[in-house]
Amino acid sequence: MLVRCRARPPHLTFARPLHSTAAWRRELFDPSNVERPSDEVDVCIVGAGPAGLSAAIRLKQLEQEKGREIRVVVLEKGAEVGSHILSGAVLEPRALNELLPDWRNRDDHPLTQPTTSTQMRLLTKNRSFRIPQPPQMAKMGTYVISLSRVTAWLGAIAEEMGVEVYPGFAGAGLVYSSDGRSVLGVRTNEVGLDRQGRMKESFEPGMEFRARVTLLAEGAHGSLSKEAIRRFKLREGRDPQTYGLGLKEVWRVDPKKHEPGKVVHTMGWPLDLHTYGGGWAYHMADGLVTLGLVIGLDYTNPYLSPYREFQRMKHHPYFRDLLSGDATRIAYGARVLNEGGLQSVPKLNFPGGALIGCSAGFVNVPKIKGTHNAMKSGMLAAEAAFDVVATQTSESPSEDEVADMSAYETSLRNSWVYEDLYEVRNVRPSFNTPLGVIGGVAYSGIDTLLLRGRTPWTFRNKLGMSDAAHTKRASECKPIEYPPFEPPLSTDLLTSVTLTGTNHAEDQPVHLRVRRYLTEGEDAGAEGEEAEKGLATERWVEDADVRREHVRVNVSEYAGLLGRGCPAQVYEYVDAEDAETATQVENVGWGGKKLVINSQNCIHCKFCDVKVPTQDITWTVPEGGGGPKYTIT
User: Fold this and answer.
1) Which of 496, 503, 501 minimizes the C-alpha distance to 625?
2) Which residue would you say has higher pLDDT here, 400 or 3?
3) What is the average per-residue pLDDT within 615-632?
4) In the prediction, which pLDDT does 3 show?
């Protein structure tokens, strides 16, 4: 395993010593003036989630089947495989059955709780009614799991097969060809920079992994995936991706309340008739229950707090009873998830690589499942990548042989993943038509129960509206009064954040950037004046004017949405007498307010990047290994 500060394998080489004196180390880091260690691989996969690990395992299976050695590297920003994975989750094992047909015979597999029953309930403020559920949701043969544990298990299998999995290495940038028209690999982030971007004694530059094929498997709204989508215009002719925010807790419940394998989904209260979303309670093995709430990020009211809605949901008699008696909360987390469906899946391949899993967006919203599709997409991409590598003749990755992954796009369109998404393509988009939320519920019921997608029409996002664009100004909305917390049933946000185990070194550059791009969508991926450096991937401004305008608009027009919307209390708009006269950019504000970013709290959910009305928060990778430490989510 490649670990920071350990001796590097012999194939990794440094071009020259990077620092020699303590004084030099505290100089401002200049990315254009460093020679990075580099490594050459056949396939580099960014993200050790279900899609990335399925791709890695499939590549090694093909190596065994065809007798052609292939070097596969997986980069994972979490400290351990699975530590940044959060999902419901009920797993449909279709892709797993194809990838590892004998998985049930493995003594260490974590799929120990099959689903025993499913139901949907409509909640009013004080009552609960069982209602018909979509057949996609009622499907049996599934398993109630911790996706974090399943991912860790897949990671161990991948390593057994010879995949090099490197936790703690965050993909920070794409490496481009000299003409900027293709991807040649991935650059990891620097380690050992202080908050001002100066080099500390522990400084190490990021590495370049030069690859014949680069697969992006970062999950929903990944930073490199965003860059590739913009750089290569992969959304042309496709709808914008839309998202939900999922908030989740895991409880060890009173044995009298535990019904192993029971799966319950809810709709209605606490959300109003204008907000898309729903809750769940899944009874896992070992006396555990995972429960949560997903809220569509196209919600309009800036006064809405997803976290407070989730805590309020637990005050409902149904959840209050479930969590009564000898019950203890043991985990909390949050993450955005793709909801756009088939219409929002971008072009999947670009010169030198491809998007897989939730980097592309394969969630089946009515099923509330996406892992099976993510895994299958990784497997299909692996098969295309293996064929590309096998046909290349150069001894190492070369600009002269750019990987063409278009076969992956074709195979996915001909697979059951496409069929799975096509059948339900109109369900989630129906809520953003003139039908409204109530009309969307009615249409979805008819479509899932009767039509099954067999219609000549497809609902499209004709206006190209993002989730952020749906947000109304505070003057148009009514503030929401939330009930007080009732510990231990419901608690304040920071108490919950402690359960995530999240941690970032405080003396490092803030990875949440208040940034305005100079030419949106056009300059992403530009190489700058010296193309051969391959470092500057996008052109932006992060100055006092950008910061001031962010505070002005978000405070005066949107009531400081980020302050109540972030599920980890990262953002605060605080009083600052010198906000108008401050000289340091991070202290600049407007109207006696400034923005404070508590980046050490960040749980990498990407809410801010998706929902901020000004669209000027950019999530970038922190030092590798930072972030949440999920184990049971």
Assistant:
1) 503
2) 400
3) 92
4) 39
The answer on pLDDT for 392 being more than 50 is yes
Q: How far apart are CA 394 and CA 388, in angstroms?
A: 12
3-state secondary structure of 458: coil
Helix (H) / strand (E) containing 516: strand 516-517
Considering the chain, what percentage of its residues have pLDDT values greater than 90? 74
**193 to each of 208, 263, 510, 604, how far by Cα in Å?**
18, 46, 10, 20
Amino acid at residue number 70: I
Average pLDDT over residues 453-463: 86
Q: What is the pLDDT of residues 279-295, one digit of tens each?
A: 999 999 999 999 999 99
Instruction: Tell me which H or E stretch contains 248.
Output: strand 243-252
Selection from 205, 173, 191, 193 nearest residue 28 by Cα = 193
In single-letter form, the type of residue at position 251 comes to W
Q: What is the pTM of this model?
A: 0.92
506/598 Cα distance (integer angstroms): 9
Identify whether the C-beta of residue 624 lies closer than 8 Å to the C-beta of residue 83: no
Cα–Cα distances in Å, from 163 out to 7, 56, 70, 147, 232? Answer: 19, 7, 9, 20, 29
Residue ranges with strand state E in 13-159: 38-46, 72-76, 90-91, 117-123, 128-131, 143-144
What are the φ/ψ torsions at residue 14 (nearest 5 degrees)? Answer: -95, 140
- pLDDT tens, 577-595? 898 888 899 999 999 999 9
Cα–Cα distance between 212 and 40 in angstroms, integer? Answer: 8
The span from the CA of 439 to the CA of 431, in Å, is 7
Cis-peptide, bond into residue 488, ω within 30° of zero = yes
What whole-number distance in Å separates Cα of residue 334 and Cα of residue 610? 14
Mean predicted confidence (pLDDT) in 558-569: 97
Catalytic sites, residue numbers: 87, 335, 371, 566, 602, 605, 608
Q: Determine contact, residues 594/588, Cβ cutoff 8 Å.
A: yes
Q: DSSP class of residue 552?
A: H
Pairwise CA distance, residues 354 & 419, whole Å: 20
Q: What is the pLDDT of residue 447?
A: 80
Pair 164, 70: CB distance under 8 Å = no
Q: What is the dihedral of CA 428, 429, 435, 440, to 10 degrees?
A: -10
Give Cα 538 to chain centroid, integer Å: 21
Check: CB of residue 315 under 8 Å from CB of residue 490: yes
pLDDT tens for 90-128 read 999 999 999 999 999 999 999 999 999 999 999 999 999
Q: In whole angstroms, what is the distance from residue 411 CA to residue 408 CA? A: 5
DSSP, collapsed to helix, strand or coil, labels residue 498 as helix
Would residue 146 be called left, alpha or beta, if left means φ above 0 and alpha means ψ between -120 and 50 degrees?
Answer: beta
* 500-519 confidence digits (pLDDT tens): 999 998 889 999 999 998 76
> What CA–CA distance (Å, rounded) separates 378 from 448?
27
In what helix (H) or strand (E) does residue 176 lie, and over which residues does it extend? strand 171-176
CA 617-619-625 angle, to 5 degrees, is 155
Q: Of 476, 335, 462, 360, which Cα lies nearest the Cα of 412?
A: 360
Please give the C-alpha separations between residue 536 and each of 27, 84, 298, in angstroms, as whole numbers.
20, 27, 32
The amino acid that residue 471 corresponds to is T
Q: Which of 100, 123, 4 is nearest to 54 (CA)?
A: 100
Residue 200 near residue 25 (C-beta atoms within 8 A): yes
